[in-house]
Each structure stands twice: as structure tokens, then as C-alpha cells.
């Protein structure tokens, strides 16, 4: 370039200018088209449908009026609110003290309790519900059988098929959210803040109420909101535990609209709206609270090993802390594994009843489970990859401010976070089971729905990885002659690699255990593990259901261990890289 | 190689005007320093030169070719302009040699040619022995040299340096100043050097543009801007300076308290009675001797500090008006002592009072 005449330099610059902009334009158009298909189209159909009459197909507001017109419509709404409130209250009451005990005290077995609480995190809650059916179904549940044998009573001790049972199962699987949020707030809080109060003469209890609790309050509130949303949007647990007794919540009522013949598509669309409105409002509240939360992290230093001494309260504290690990992980896992190893679970766990038959059946003999295992891994793998690609692209555009309206694209990919899975399922069903894009029964529609659901996670993962890479590293490449695409491939992508694998796994795992998004979209050919387990459970073959569940849990566990391994490797590499051009 | 022509370049972010219509011409092969405090617009200018940002107005030409205007920005990779960053921006996943060779690989050179240019670039910054190290195995100064070699290896027509030495320790910084000048003299690449350190600017540059508030305050040789600053800001920003507020009486005359002082007039003020400042370097102030017929003041020593090579003396010449003088270290003025102050008229300059100066 040094010796080239300025005419040719000018021409090459001009070609570069045009090529550069053409490339950007093509990428942007493709991205926007994909997002329109994944998000705008399905959600648009829900809104459109909600204003149409199922019988006549005319524009109408009747659907909305009808939500409140009959008891069968508004009772599920009321039940959902009841369930969500109870779940939020209980998981806060369980999760916050649990976080404090693990993070701040000398309670024994803290590491073990932390580990099991995390195990509850990765367990699909509908599989937990399944475990609890085995334990506490009124007639056949093992705990009730044991109770009757011991006490001679003829009534069951526990009935899991009830609102209280549902609240209980939803709560224990929601505690990990509160626990994680509050314990990280406690760990980030500088110990000096508490010390400062103590040096001024404040006692342990006084310090806790005047310093510790106010500082973790935002985390507690956010935990409460997330728990509430969980209670509103969970589908599997109420479907397993409430539907048998005829009690419906919003999500299961939506499923009922679908099982009508013909499906009440338009009515169900309107019925989604209160749910979206509530989750949307709560996410907005969460954002506001998190926006102000920064003050808790000021000056966060490595905490000294000093722990509050519980003295005589150590064992009572431990007993409390074991509630969630035992009820959410130990008991259901034991029940599921034992049943999966039984010829007939009614006979109880005795040696003559043990068999590997159901695993042989699930893995080698039954084409349905074989296909579902392959489908689950394949769909989750493909969907997680697409999720990450879109997430990275959007995060790159937003973080590097490549576009004026980048904030809007970011908002668009974040929208699915307020859309409950079952609603998104409704949207995809409405949008893509008609001409010109009839995808009913194909893998594409399921993968697309998975991608849409988990885009927000992928985007926020990609964003936090990119924040750690200084834009100067990319600019340096541009200034020595690399195009935007080449810079991305040679500099940004290799620097992101460690974080990308971890981010991919963080999307892959929830897709593996996702039930509600897939539920209306699968066909016998495209069943995944979760939907197959759901269908088998309806058939009542618990041994087969448990074997399939154990396989799903096992597969998830392997992937989680892999994730830990990779994440730690990435963290190590990033530490090395952080001493260099990491962003300020 | 090529010259750079910046015309009426402006850049605003919303209501904030980062650059207010600057004009600069950098001749082929020259080294221009953009000097100024943070927020003066120097980094914005560099970003625009590199092509990472779009100007709000005006244009930039390199070698006669339009490379930046509000309508059209040639992308950075097509400009033949290399940039060295303040934080080095050395790629942590590539070795020294891979960092430097990256730009050459993009040019699809023959293997031998690539190897030759790589060696030459590494040699120029004396990094040949470290070519297979990874960046985290290098010191800050070595990383900075990798960044420089990487920018030079592609033989750019223009080299931009963005505060390249500000993350280095003082000793290394001084050494690298001369290193940068040496490399520039060897290769003769048109260079723009952004810094807030006047020492770096004076040592390395052929010409210095002093900036403040998005405006070029003065463009001139290092000697020009030190000896003949165009306003009080430039005078105070470059080197130590005394700014004595007073009243403009007549061309070349200014009164401080009740004393009339003679000086070079750069204020452009005409009528008498306007506020003005008199600037003089502390090193030019004379103490204890009446050096001439005019510009003699009676002062009181306020503070005296021994600094080895000279003595820094603070003298009160009028109520609330003090003045620093750097004098020979073996003079020993004591605080409280009356002292005769002489301000040689040829070293005194009158400027219009800065707008933001508090009323005196």
C-alpha cells in the first residue's frame, strides 16, 4: 500500500467501503428475519388470535370477557395466584435462612448442603413431582404405606394430589433460586460493613437486622419475584399433582383448551394474556430492583474465614437446612431409582423384585425411548448452538454499538423471558401449523421453539463474555487490515471460546429438561425425553417412567459435570488473559 | 507514505461537542503530537483518523484521498493506518511472532517475504529473542513494543499512537520516548501521537497541537509552543508557569496591584481596563536583583523548597497574589524575608484573561 498510487488506493478503499456495508446489511437482514420468525411471528399470532372468535373467526373482544364470565375460567387464574404466592412465601422462608446458614455460620455439612441444593436446581421439577407421587400418593405412596403399617390407621398421612402437595413440591424446587441469589449477595458483601457495626458496639443480632438484612434485601426481593413467576408458570408439577383431582391452574387450563376438539386456539390465546401481563410486570419490577442493587457489591473483598458460631443451635440448624436437600433430592431420587429397578413397584423394594429390565427396555428394546433419547440430545444440541450463535451476534452488535437501534434488538431477544413456556408453545402452534409454513410434527418447530425460549439466557451469557474482551483487541486487528468478519473469526471467537462452551452448556441443560414448550409441538416421531415421560406417566407405567427419568437425570448430571469442568478451565484461561487486554 | 489533511472536523455525541471544527495539516513523514488534558478531543480525533467513528462534520483526507466524512467512512482495515493502543491490546492467545505476523498474513504475502518483514519488525523493536513468548510472559514495556511492531510490520502509510506510554513506569517511559522517535526517523512514517504528557510531546514531535475543549489551541513546533504560547492555557499546560491577573493598560503594558509591568503582548486586546493575565515561567523570574529599569516588584518570601537542582520559592507580590520562582539552589531566601523580584520583559507575555478564570 505504501507505494501504490493514490488512485488505486482510493479505488480499493471505495470497494472496501461498499463490501463492508453490504456484508453488514446481509448479516443484519438475516438476523432480523430469524428473530421475526422466532419471536415476532408466534407472539403476534397469540395477540391476533386472542381477538378472534373460535367459532366464527370474526374479530371480537369476547374471549377476554369470557375469561371472567364463568367459574371454570377464573378459578384456574385464582388457583395460579394462590399457588404462586404460597410458593414465593415458602421458598423465601426456606431459602433465605438456608443461604445465611451456608454462607455465614459454622453449621456442619455446609458443602454437602450447597451441593444438594444445586442438584435440586438441575432436577426437572416434574420429575421431582413424579418422585413424590411414588412417595406420597394417598394409597400406594411408600410413606403412606409405611404410615399405615406402623400406626394401623386406615387413612393416608400425606396426600400429594392436593393444592398443599403441589405448593410443597413447587416450593422445594424453587428454593435454589432464592438460595443462589441471597447467598451470592451475602458472599459479595464486604465483611468490613458488619465489622464496622460491631466495633460501634452492635451485637450479632442487632448487626444482622441493621446491616446484613437491609443489604441483602434486594436479593431477597428478586428471589421472591422469581419464585412467584415459577409458581405462575410451572406446568409439569400441577399437571401431575393437581389435574388428577380436577383442580386446574392457568397453565394446565391452557393445556385443556388444546385437548378440546377442535382446540380452542383463540380462547387460549386470550387466556395467556393475564399470565404474560403478570410475568411481564414482575420482570420489570425485578429489573428496577436489580438496577439499584449495585450498592451491595461495593468493595467486595475475599471474605475472611470467620463464621458466626451457632453453638447449641448447630444441630437444629442442620435439621432445618436438610429439609430441601432431603425432600427435593434424596427422597425423590431414591424413590425413582428404586422403582426403575423394580419389576412392579407395588411390591416394594425387596431383592426378588429388583431388575434391570426397564433400563434394557428403555435403551435397547423400545424404539420410542431410543428415539426420544436421540431426539433430546440432538434437538438440545442443535437448539443450544443456534441460541448461542444468535445470542453472540446480538450481544456483539449491542456491546460494540454497531447499530443505532441495537437496544431494540436486545429487547426483542429478551422478550421470551417473560413468556411462559406453555404460552410460547401456543404461539408456535398457532404460527407454524398453517400455510405457508406448516411445520407440524417436524423437528424444526420444536428446535425453533427451544431456541426462542432460551434466547434470553444465551444473549445474557454472550453479553457477559463479550464484556470481558476489550474492544481494543478487535480494533487492533482492524487497524492492521482485518475485516470485521475476519476480526471476529481470528480474535474475538478464540478469546470467547472457553466462555462459549460454558454458555452453550448453560443453554443445553435447561433445554434437555424443558417440558412445557415442547408439549403441544411434539408428534410420536419427534418426542423428546420430557414429553415421553409425561405421556408414559399418563399411561400409568411408573417403572418405565422412572427408568426414563433416571436416564434423563443421569444424562443431565453428566452434562453438568462437563459444564463444571469446562467452566473452571475457562475461568483459569480467562484469569491469564485478564492480566492483558481485558476490558476495564 | 502520505500526508493528512483534516478540515473543519467536528464530532458531537448528543449535545456534547467533543470536537469543534478543527483544521490540521500533517505533512508527509512528520510526527505530530496531539497534546491536551483528558476530554480535550485528542482521542476523538484519533478514533476518527483510525476510522472507528463517523465525524459529525468536516472531512479527513490521507494522501489526497477522502477517508472520513459524515457521509462516508472508509473502514479501518482499508485505510493503511495502524494504531497502537494505550492498553497495548496485544492478543493474549497469540505469541509475539503471531501477533506481529497477523497483519502480514492478511496480505497473503509469500512465505519468505512474510518471514523477512516479520523479522525486520521484531528487530526494529528489539524483540527477536522473545518471538515465541506469550504476552502474559512479557513485561508492560515488552508488550508495548509488540504492539508497536505489530503496527509497523504492515508498513502503514500512517501510524497512530494513543497514549502509548501512559501505562509504563516513569523510567521506561523516558526510554521509550526516544525509542519511538528513533523508529519514526528510521521509517519516516507519518505519525500522530496522542498524549497528555508534555514531556513526551516535546521530545518526540516535529509539531505539537495543543487541544482543549475540542479546539486546537495552538499548532507549532515544540519550541514555539513553549516559548511563544498563543494563550494562557497553552502557557500553563506546557511546563511550569505563573499566571498573574491584572488590568490591561496599553499594548505591552499591564498593571498588577499598582505596579505597571511591561511585557510581550499576545492578548489581542485594544482598549485599556480589560482583565488580562501576565505569564512568566518560574525559571525566568529573578530574585534579589533589579535587572532593569522596569518590572521590579517588592515581595515577601512565603515558602522556600530545596529541590536539589534548583530552589522553588513562593513570593507574595501583592495581597493574595503569589508567584513562583525557580532560583539557584545556593540562594537561601527565608520565609518572611522581603525580596526584590524582577520579571524580565522579554520573558513576560500578556494574554486575555481565560473565560473561566474567577474574577480577581
TrEMBL record, chain A:
Belongs to the binding-protein-dependent transport system permease family. It is found in: Cell inner membrane; Cell membrane. The chain crosses the membrane at residues 21-48, 81-103, 115-137, 157-179, 215-243, 263-285, 315-341, 377-398, 405-431, 437-459, 500-522, 542-566. One of its GO terms (biological process) is transmembrane transport. It is a multi-pass membrane protein. It comes from Ancylobacter tetraedralis. Residues 77-282, 373-563 form the ABC transmembrane type-1 domain. The keyword Ribosomal protein does not apply. The keyword Transport applies. GO terms for cellular component: plasma membrane. SUPFAM superfamilies: MetI-like. This is Iron(III) transport system permease protein. PANTHER family: INNER MEMBRANE ABC TRANSPORTER PERMEASE PROTEIN YDCV. Keywords: Cell inner membrane, Cell membrane, Membrane, Transmembrane, Transmembrane helix, Transport. InterPro entries: MetI-like, MetI-like_sf.
TrEMBL record, chain B:
One of its GO terms (biological process) is quaternary ammonium group transport. PROSITE patterns: ABC_TRANSPORTER_1, ABC_TRANSPORTER_2. Coiled coil: none annotated. Gene3D superfamilies: 2.40.50.100, P-loop containing nucleotide triphosphate hydrolases. It holds the Pfam family ABC_tran. The keyword ATP-binding applies. Keywords: ATP-binding, Nucleotide-binding, Transport. SUPFAM superfamilies: MOP-like, P-loop containing nucleoside triphosphate hydrolases. Residues 4-238 form the ABC transporter domain. One of its GO terms (molecular function) is ATP binding. InterPro entries: AAA+_ATPase (IPR003593), ABC_SmlMolc_Importer (IPR050093), ABC_transporter-like_ATP-bd (IPR003439), ABC_transporter-like_CS (IPR017871), Mo/tungstate-bd_C_term_dom (IPR008995), P-loop_NTPase (IPR027417), Transp-assoc_OB_typ2 (IPR013611). One of its GO terms (cellular component) is ATP-binding cassette (ABC) transporter complex. Belongs to the ABC transporter superfamily. This is Iron(III) transport system ATP-binding protein. It comes from Ancylobacter tetraedralis.
